[in-house]
Amino acid sequence: MIPSLWELAMLDFNLMQDLYKSELKDVSRWWSSLRLYEKLPFIRDRLVENYLWSLGGAFEPENSSNRIAQTQANCLVTTIDDIYDVYASLNELEAFTVAIEQWDIAAAEALPEYMQICLSALFSTVEDQGHEVFKKKGLDIIPYLRRAWKDLCRAYLKEARWYNNGYVPTLDEYLENAWASISGHIVFSYAYCINNYVTSDQLEKFLSGYPDIVRYSSITFRLYNDMGTSIVEQERGDIKKSVQCYMHHNGVTESVARKEIKEMIRKYWTLINGETLGNYCAFEKYLKNVACNMTRMAQCNYQHGDGYGKPDRETKDQITSLLFDPIKLN
């Protein structure tokens, strides 16, 4: 390698690391101001891991605004996921979902205090994110972000009903809901709405729904997640995941089910790669890269277990080397 090129690459890495640390400080101030991890002590406090996921989706310097907003969204997804999965009763979740559907803080007055705190944080954050984009580009993205959050909570509620009723869905039925409950469409919605490319015409096109690559990437994301986390989640009390659904309805062992899920992942990767081939404008290329990178992050994060819910040494080393340890220049 040409020495000057190597030195330039190291310098570029350090400059990008400085930008990433600055962004992390910004979202840390936001997260600290909400104090959700103090007010709701049952939730997972994973700010840095959430930033790492945002960074994996869109690492380029021009995507700074998206990374900050996406990290905020990731933190709120984790908070809401823990409410649905481990803390609230089904009756509370039914009422919580209604409040999300109405998107009105007044509708939350009858909810438990911890749910009111969560909704207040969600509503205010989305409003702030929308206001920032409107100031810069004159675009109203709030309806699209609201749609994504409503879709997420509908999927969460369906899983909560399954769990409370002791229902085990077929694998197809499970994935039809799980592609939304994994929150991949949240990632895509934020990527679509908060970037340097989007126009009013492109926002209008987004009204028609999520493109195929979002479903493909989200299902693959879900399958990677299930392969890495399903045992732990079963122990803490959660619905049957893809592995268990396949075992239940096909009468096979766990090893056979896992082999089938791995084959499904391979097939969905083929679909994802097919979606990324072709000549696209900068906006479309950016979106497809985000969707593809989200799946890559899932593969990286869950290949040895749950690198998000229970970060291991490898995850911590990745965070340290990427965000905190600069390369020493000669």
TrEMBL record:
Highest rank taxon of the organism: Eukaryota
An example Gene Ontology biological process: terpenoid biosynthetic process
Cofactor list: Mg(2+)
InterPro entries for the chain: Isoprenoid_synthase_dom_sf (IPR008949), Terpene_cyclase-like_1_C (IPR034741), Terpene_synthase-like (IPR050148), Terpene_synthase_metal-bd (IPR005630)
Domain Terpene synthase metal-binding: residue ranges: 33-269
Sorted UniProt keywords: Magnesium, Metal-binding
Listed Pfam families: Terpene_synth_C
Molecular function in Gene Ontology: magnesium ion binding; terpene synthase activity
Protein name per Swiss-Prot or TrEMBL: Terpene synthase
PANTHER family for the chain: OS04G0344100 PROTEIN-RELATED, TERPENE SYNTHASE 12-RELATED
